[in-house]
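Morning, I've got a small favour to ask if you have a moment. I've been staring at a protein lately and its backbone has me curious. You're getting the sequence in one-letter code plus the fold written as tokens. I've dropped the whole record in just underneath, so have a look:
=====
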Amino acid sequence: MTKGSPTITFRNLDRSPAIETAIHDRAELLYRMGGRIEQLQIVIEAANRTADDRVQGLTVRVEMAVPGPDIVVTRIRPRVSGPDDVVQVVRDAMDTARRQLAARLSQRRGSRERDDERHHGGRVLRAASFMYPPSLEFVRPRSRLRALPSPGS
């Protein structure tokens, strides 16, 4: 992991290497985006377990501490048929968190570009006009139009 490893919590569910691998792969993509992720926590909770050890109801919660408001994504699946469904719900939640982080980064970068245009772009053009003396700056060119002959002449 490039910056840190996510905190993974399983509630009412056994740890699975496939689930952990899916989480670490998606977390690597999040850390590569460069969003200054301070903490990444994933909680996978089974709502209920049957007598034959099957999971009924699954909640995956991804909490990402970043500058500004935290990004929190929750995915709920009422019925889970196997471990592949758990991995799919985890991937969906992590992909949604990635999209939200990308939107936050592009919004922040876009506001910086608008600030640069507003503060620097307009002033640079105005500053160039002050290099010339005021008397030369506002001189109008002479009109080159000749007077037209009157219709009666």
Remarks:
- The first helix runs from residue 17 to 32.
- The helical segments are 17-32, 83-129, 134-137.
- The two ends are 93 Å apart (CA to CA).
- Confidence is low (pLDDT under 50) at residues 120-130.
